[in-house]
Amino acid sequence: MIKAFRLTAILEGISYLLLFAFTMPLKYWANIGAPNKHVGMAHGVLFILFVVLAGLVCYQYKWSIKRFIIFFIASLLPFGTFYVDQKYLKDLQ
């Protein structure tokens, strides 16, 4: 399950950065909304999957609620999921 969580963390981070750096400028500066809709939907699904997997992994490894909260807050910040991957998940594989 840790592999799936790591992959989701990376994909969620990439989708977040794509959303802010690429598709939102297209939507608001060039009036091209389709990429924002698709990347936004993918990001939403990946965000929910990340939070669910964070809960499951914290339960499986018997980590504290504090660590789950760190994971959740990291999912709200740009580059946060990359931090989670490097600090908490990289050595588990």
UniProtKB/TrEMBL annotation:
Keywords: Cell membrane, Membrane, Transmembrane, Transmembrane helix. InterPro entries: DUF3817_TM (IPR023845). The chain crosses the membrane at residues 7-29, 41-61, 68-84. This is DUF3817 domain-containing protein. Residues 3-88 form the DUF3817 domain. It is a multi-pass membrane protein. It is found in: Cell membrane. NCBIfam families: integ_memb_HG. GO terms for cellular component: plasma membrane. Its main location: membrane.
